[in-house]
Please model this.
Amino acid sequence: MKRTMTLNLSDMEMDALETMCDQKGVSKIALVRQALRLYKSVDERLARGDKVFIESADKAEKAELMVL
Model:
């Protein structure tokens, strides 16, 4: 079952959403759904006590992802 909601974004948030949609070639709702799945995955790992890292392609840099 699908449910509907209204989402009010600031101009800056909407600009970021539209830019990412253009870059990825997806709709706004598709991007929001992807973001929710990613956030859920990260949140579940953090809840288990795991750490999440972002690593540069050449593996020269590594940073821990902090979620508030």
In short: The chain has two helices and two strands. The CA atoms of residues 43 and 67 lie 8 Å apart. The first strand starts at residue 53 and ends at 55.
